[in-house]
Amino acid sequence: MNLNKRIPSTLGYWLFGGLLLQVLLSVVRPGLFGNWLSPLLSLAAALLPFWYVSRRRLLAFTPETPASVSWMNPVLWLAMALFLFLYAAIGEGYLLDAARSDVIPTIQLFVHRLLSGAMPYDTITEFGYYLAPTYLPMHWLPFVVSEWIGLDARVWSGILFLIMALMFLRPLQHKMASPLRQQVVAYTPVIFAGLLLLFQRDDMGYSIELLLVGYYLLFCRSMLTLNPWLAAFSLICILLSRFSLVLWLPLAVVVLWQQLGPRFVLKVALPVLAGILLIYVWPFLSERPDSFMNAQKCYTTAAEKEWMGQSWQKPGDNPFQISRGFGFAWWFYKWAPGTLAERIGIVRVAHLAISLASVGLLLFWYFRKLRNSMPLPVFLMGSLHLYLWVFTLFIHVPYPYLFFIPLAVTAAWTGQVWFGYREENPS
Q: How many domains does the chain have?
């Protein structure tokens, strides 16, 4: 069988169909099918493509004459520059006021404190109220550079995102025999970011989420190529920014240990532990040992305020952040018994239990059926894609920007499967 010839298959319908449905429900038209059905459809859009891929035997694909990869595409560079210009222009319309959103003002405060020699993790009082510093170092340290050069933090996050996204695409482009296809694929980061800027302008205007998306794409590249050093670097960035994947890591450790041996795992784990100690524990946590737990308490208090609704809402209105069709928090708000605080407690327990259960089921599924049929990089990235959707959909306050990361990982996994593998027995 000639694997170098594209085989007509339903694989693309499942992969891109799931991705497009997630784009629709998390970016273009959130809540399109209501608060009850929309999160179910988002979960199905993550689960069904993975289930379909698990039922096929995939074979690694390398074209006989891959095209040489070049980034010297003036149209691509123009498209990226145009996106950054539009992002900067739109960002000007969002005043960096902590009363509206404290994300970027808090990052700026961390940076200013560090550069002035003060402790970044002292309690924040500059906004007119007490706030525990909640951000881990890799959430704000990269913006020391943008502060030095006088660049808007959002634009800097966009630049870093584009760099890391193109780094992810590089190995995929090497698998393409068509230069045209290489160039088309290179535009996907700009298209992704452009859709967010067009349809989720508020969350793009008030956050630096693209930086965190870039961290995950860098980690996806490490899974694509099974590079332990890149995996370690990207994991340091992820675990010291927003550590949503921490419950998934035991799955990765077990699978990698079994497939590639303890040496590979230690090449990743030891630099990660050293990075966490040197970047966070030694300079910051050792000085303010209560800062981490105070941050978690702050998140709990913020969740209760969100479940009570916004100050501009009328009495009796549904809480804005949990009634937009983004996650299952609405289900618990309506169905869970007890007071507001008790219902938040229930959803947090359910969130932890369901996330852990998804990891356990994926691990069982892998050793029961997938170990000999699904390539290791496909399983690692696919299981992360599925876990992140479960984790984010069941979070107690499903802010729209939280869905940028699982959506990007889904797009990365879709590209990995579609451009890197072929079905042995396509239907």
A: 1
